[in-house]
Amino acid sequence: MSVFNVYPLYEVTPVSAKGIYVYDKNNTEYLDLYGGHAVISIGHSHPKYVEAITNQVAKLGFYSNAVQNPLQEELAAKIESLSGCKDYALFLCNSGAEANENALKLASFKTNKSRVIAFKNGFHGRTSAAVAVTDNAAIIAPINAQQEVTILELNDIKSVQRELEKGDVCAVIVEFIQGVGGLDQANAAFFEQLDLLCKANNTLFIADEVQSGYGRSGKFFAFQYYKLTPDIISIAKGMGNGFPIGGILIHPSIEAKFGMLGTTFGGNHLACVAGLSVLTVIEDDHLIENVNEMSAYFIKIANTIPQIKKTKGRGLMLGLEFDFEVANLRKKLIYEHHIFTGGASNKKVLRILPPLNIDKEHIHQFFDALVAALDN
């Protein structure tokens, strides 16, 4: 049997990793500035993370959500404490796509409406409703296209108001920093008016923090740069440092009912201890403070390189925009300089999504390699 061939692959085979480095089958060391799509938040093989998962799997790796699991309550309390999102409820699942799928379903339940507003260049996942609100026709199958979705331009608040006033919109979903789309952001006035319009029109405001959450933006959540209150916050990626886990934070105005959401694997014991260990390291190692310090240092150096036309994003969710497509540059960085970086739907943007414990030495290693690659 073959593997279904849907991924274009680099000719690199990682077999181990530690901290911010990955090692291939030939023991070649790679600087990881992409973290497997922003998943590696506290560094590869962090000892507290490894210990937590090892100890838990030796006791109980899994049982279903038909029984009590105090680890879920512990994780919910820890998220509330570090994020400042008081009185939200936590529903756990396995991925960012599932998180957004459940967020959209919950919004439809709550409002008894079905249409969704999303935004150009947004990416929210590949499951049925999540992919329908993603601005990429190439990955939307006919069965997904049955969803009622209106995709608008960021910063066009008049169009949003016009659509919301039609009265059939259950949710507005938005990334506060677009990930796959290329690190674009709307302005503060747009986000804050969007929140007010949702509340005035019985529409739930979903903050997609799948990539930007857990400190990556320089705050625990990227929406916290603005004066607004999401009804639902979707989380995943850096939440488990590689262990599959996702979830939604649900505003107390939304009432739970038995059976409205469900999952087999979501919130399992191993996932919860992975999530708890990540939060412990973020707190104990002051990683959000490090994000802001390293971000400022990275941007300062980036601004000295003339080929970089714009630095986009916040925190350690950054994009370097050039006046040429970066596919060949990424290949040079990985094959000649042994550095992982990311691309975006904006083909001129190089995405930088390192573990949150990156330091200045790693940043210098990257820019030395970048300058060399640009000069060749």
UniProtKB/TrEMBL annotation:
Determine the domain of life of the protein's source.
Bacteria
For this UniProt record, the keywords arranged alphabetically read as follows: Aminotransferase, Pyridoxal phosphate, Transferase
For this protein, the record's InterPro entries field holds: Aminotrans_3, Aminotrans_3_PPA_site, Class-III_PLP-dep_AT, PyrdxlP-dep_Trfase, PyrdxlP-dep_Trfase_major, PyrdxlP-dep_Trfase_small
Q: What is this protein called?
A: Acetylornithine aminotransferase
Which cofactors, by name?
A: pyridoxal 5'-phosphate
Q: Supply the Pfam families for this chain.
A: Aminotran_3
Q: What does the sequence similarity comment in the record state about its family? A: Belongs to the class-III pyridoxal-phosphate-dependent aminotransferase family.
Source species of the chain: Polaribacter irgensii 23-P
A Gene Ontology MF term for this entry?
A: identical protein binding
